[in-house]
Amino acid sequence: MSPARPSPGRRLLLVHAHPDDETLTTGGTIARYTAEPDTGVTVVTCTLGEEGEVIPPELAELAPDRGDQLGGYRTRELDGALAALGGPDHRYLGGAGRWRDTGMVLAGHGTRAALPPDLHPRAFAAPAVFGTQLAQLLEIVDEVRPQVLVSYADDGGYGHPDHVRAHELTVAAAAARPDVVAKLYFTVRSAALLADGLAELLQACGGDPARTGLRWPEPDEHPGHDAAAVTTRLDVSAHDDARIAAMRAHATQIDVRTGDGWAAFAMSNTIVQPLLGVEEFVLHGADPEEIIETDLFEGVEP
User: Fold this and answer.
1) If 0-12 CB within 10 Å is exposed, 13-18 middle and 19+ buried, where does residue 203 land?
2) How many domains does the chain have?
3) 188-204: average pLDDT
4) Which range of residues forms the domain containing residue 203?
5) Is 66 domain-assigned?
6) Does residue 107 share a domain with residue 31?
C-alpha cells in the first residue's frame, strides 16, 4: 500500500452554488492557485444547476420545463471547465444531485433575483435544511482543512437564493472552525472594475459595440459591488486562455465571443460582459481602507 500523500502547505476551498459559478466568479483564482506549488485547491458545488436556462437551441430539450436533464448534462460541462482551470479537487455538497438548484424569479431592475414561491422538495435554499447542509460542508472542511475559504457576498452577488445560501453556509463553517480557517473571502465585482472593462472592450472593438455580437448593457443593468469595500485584487490575466476554455465548456450557460485583442461573454440574457484580468474579493472582518491584498494567502502560515 502506497503511503498517503502529504497535505499541501496552502489550502484553498471555494464554495459555489451551481456549475459555471466557479468559472464566472473565480476561474482565474482557481487557475492561479492550482498552478502554484504546495497549494491545494478544492471546489465545492452545491447543486447541479438544474433550473438554468439553456442557450444553444440544439440543447433546448434539456431544460427543466422539457426533458429536465440539464443537471446531468452540466456535470459534464463542469468536468471540462475544471480540467481547463488546472484540475482542482472537486466535491458536490452531500454528493452529486443531493441538492437541487432552487431557481429564481426576477425582482426589480436588471438581473436582481429572489426566491421563487414554490420550492422543489430538494431545493438547496429551502429554509429547513440549513443544518444538514452545514454538517456536509463541515465534513469537507474537516477533511481538507483549508486556511482560506471563498464564497459570495451576503446578497449572493445579485440576489440568487442559492448564492445567498452558499454565503450563509460558508460564513457558518468558518465560524465553526476558527482553528482551521484563517481567512474568509467573498468574491465580488466592483462597478468601477466593470465600467473600466467595458470601456476597454469598446475601445478594442473600435468603438462599435455591435462587433461583440451581444447586447451592450444599459446603465446599472449589471450588478456591481462598491469598489471602496474591496480589500483584495488578484491579477489573473495570465490565465485568460484557461478561463475562456472553461467558459466554453459551460456551453449551455455561457456564450463566449472573442475578436482581435478582446474577449467577452454573456449569459442567456445576451448582455455583454468583458473578460476582466482582475478578480476582486472582500476579506471578512478587514478594513478596506487599511488593506489591499494581491494574494489570498497573504499572512497565512502553512
Assistant:
1) exposed
2) 2
3) 97
4) 191-274
5) yes
6) yes
Mark whether 38 and 144 lie in a shared domain. yes
Q: Are 152 and 186 in contact (CB under 8 A)?
A: yes
Q: What is the mean pLDDT of residues 279-285?
A: 97
Single out the residue in 154, 189, 224 at which a domain terminates: 189
Q: Give residue 275's Cα distance to chain centre.
A: 14
**For position 293, what pLDDT does the model report?**
96
CATH number at residue 167: 3.40.50.10320
Q: Would residue 298 count as lying in a domain?
A: no
* Confidence band of 4 (pLDDT split at 50, 70, 90): low
Asked whether residue 290 is assigned to any structural domain, the reply reads: no
Q: Give the span between the Cα atoms of 39 and 185, in whole angstroms.
A: 17
Between the alpha carbon of residue 79 and those of residues 86, 88, 191, 204, 247, the distances in Å are 11, 10, 31, 32, 12
Q: Are residue 158 and residue 238 in the same domain, yes or no? A: no
Q: What is the arithmetic mean of pLDDT over 241-261?
A: 98
